[in-house]
Design a protein that fits this description.
single chain; 25% helix; 68 residues; alpha+beta; 2 strands
């Protein structure tokens, strides 16, 4: 994605942010349903009882449109 972004804009900044959240069981199941890696998996059959927290990481790209 960074490569695709940089083909169209001048990358000015690139930041990685990460945060960990405590997760109650009902939220763990909701996130499991939204996770692309689990789209073809029956998450109801997974043992998620040991999952107590979730870490979300994202890359923030700031760019300026390239002038051709």
């Amino acid at each position: 994605m960074v490569e695709q972004f940089s083909e169209h804009v001048d990358v000015i900044e690139n930041h990685t942010v990460s945060r960990t959240f405590a997760m109650p069981p009902e939220d763990v199941l909701a996130f499991a349903h939204m996770t692309p890696l689990l789209f073809n998996v029956d998450v109801e059959q997974l043992d998620l009882s040991r999952v107590r927290e979730l870490t979300i990481e994202a890359q923030i790209l700031v760019g300026r449109v390239c002038e051709d």
